[in-house]
Amino acid sequence: MDMIVTPTGKLNGEIQALSSKNYTTRYLLVSALAEGTSTILYPAHSEDGEAMRRCIRDLGATVEEDDEKIVITGFGRHPRATKELDVGNAGAVLRFVMSIAALLPEVHFVNSYPASLGKRPHDDLIAALESMGVRIEHENGRLPMTIRGGNPRGGKIQVSGSVSSQFLSSLLFLTPLLDEDSEIEVLHDLKSKVVVGQTLEVLEQAGIVIEASDDLMHYRIPGRQKYKAQTYTVQGDYPGSAAILAAAAVTESDVVVHRLMEDSKQGERAVVDVLKAMNVPLAHENGIVRVRGNGKLTAGEFDGDEFTDGVLAMVAAAVFAEGTSRFYNVENLRYKECDRITDYLTELRKAGANVEEKRDEIIVHGRPEGVEGGVEIDAHYDHRVIMALTVVGLRSARPIRIKDAHHVAKSYPIYFDHLKSLGAQVEWAD
Ligand SMILES: O=C(O)C1=C[C@@H](OP(=O)(O)O)[C@@H](O)[C@H](O)C1
Ligand SMILES: C=C(OP(=O)(O)O)C(=O)O
C-alpha cells in the first residue's frame, strides 16, 4: 500500500509512545530461555515482535497473549528440535535466534526478504559460532542458512563489533547456558555500543550474571546458569518516537509524547538532546516529551552511532535547518534494512533535499524554505526510511507518494494513525 503525504503546517495533540521493539525482542527471548512462566506487560505489536513470538513458539515456548500482556512458558536450555525458522525481515531477531539454534542438531533459516534482510551480512556471528564447534551453511555470510549445532563449546570467544552490536548481544544470550565458563573479546570496534547496555540490563533482570569491562569490549560469563522466569514491563520506544518528534520539530506544533523515560538505556533517547541542540523548543520531564515547534531549526554536528535508529529521523529534521549538519560515525547504517546512507539520500534528493554522503557520514545542507516534493518515493523495505520521508513530506511544497509504506509495520504499525491523530494529512492510496 502507498501513502500520500500532503504538506501539513501544524501538528497538535498527545500520544502514548509505542512500546520498545528492542526491549520486546529481548524480553520474549529471555522468557523463552527460562523454565517456568514469565509475563511481559505492554509488549510491542509489530512485525519484528511477531517474528520473535513465532520463533520462540516454534522452538517450544508456549505464548499466550491478551491486549495488555504476554504470558510465556519457556524451554530453558532445551529448545524443541524444530527444522525451520522464519524471522521475516527482523535483523536482531535473526541474530539472537541463530545462537539459540546452535543448541539444536539442525535448523534452517529461510530467506523471506531477499532484497532486504537477505542482503545483510552475518559473517562475524557465523565465525564466532563456528569457533564454538557449530557448523553453518550460508550464502556468503547471508541467508538462507542452515545451522548444525547441538552442543556449542564455551571458553574463549572472539567476535567483531564493527558491523553490528547484535552479534555480541546474541552470544551474551547463549553463553550463560553452556557447560563451560566463557570469555568474550570484542574485536575491532563496537558499533551501537549503547544498545549492548539494553542487552546487559535485560540479562541482569533475568537473573543472569555477566561481568562486563567498562569499555564493553570484554565479558566473563559463568556457564551452567539458569534464566529466571520474571515479570517485565516494556517501556516506550525512542527510535519510533524520534520520527514523531522530528515531525513536530519541522512544523508549527504542540505535540506531547508520553512513556519516554529520561533515564532509559535506549541510545535514541539522545534525539531529545539533538533536537534541543537544533534549537527546537522542547521539554522532557516525568517521562513526557513536549515539542512546541515553530519550524525553525539550526544545523549541528552529531555522532550518529549514539542514536543509531534515530539518525534517519534527525536527518529529516536537519533537511529544514539553517546551515549545514553532519551526522558522522554512521557507516553501520549501510547494513540495515537497506543502505541507510546511499538509498536514503537517493530518496531525500528526489524530494528536493540537499544532501551529501561519505563512507561513514551524512551531510545535510539545510533548506529552511522547504523542499519541492511532488515525487514518488521508494521505501526500500525500510520502516525508518518511510517514517523519515514522511517527516520531509509534511514540509514539502507538493504531496509525496511513498510506495509500499505498509513496511512501516516492521516496528511501528500505527505510525500513520499517530501522525493523523496529531493533524497530519496522510492517506493510504491503493
Ligand atoms: O540489538 C538490537 O536490538 C538492535 C541493535 C541495533 O543494530 P546494530 O547493532 O546492527 O546497529 C539497531 O540498529 C537495531 O534496531 C536493533
Ligand atoms: C535495523 C533495525 O532493526 P533490525 O536490525 O533488528 O532489523 C531497526 O529497527 O532500525
TrEMBL record:
Coiled coil: none
SUPFAM superfamilies: EPT/RTPC-like
InterPro entries xrefs: Enolpyruvate_Tfrase_dom (IPR001986), Enolpyruvate_Tfrase_sf (IPR036968), EPSP_synthase (IPR006264), EPSP_synthase_CS (IPR023193), RNA3'P_cycl/enolpyr_Trfase_a/b (IPR013792)
Top enzyme category: transferase
Ranges for domain Enolpyruvate transferase: 6-419
Top-rank taxon, per record: Bacteria
EC number: 2.5.1.19
Swiss-Prot/TrEMBL keywords: Amino-acid biosynthesis, Aromatic amino acid biosynthesis, Cytoplasm, Transferase
Active site: D309 (proton acceptor)
Function comment: Catalyzes the transfer of the enolpyruvyl moiety of phosphoenolpyruvate (PEP) to the 5-hydroxyl of shikimate-3-phosphate (S3P) to produce enolpyruvyl shikimate-3-phosphate and inorganic phosphate.
Subunit structure: Monomer.
Name of the protein: 3-phosphoshikimate 1-carboxyvinyltransferase
Native organism: Cohnella cellulosilytica
Gene: aroA
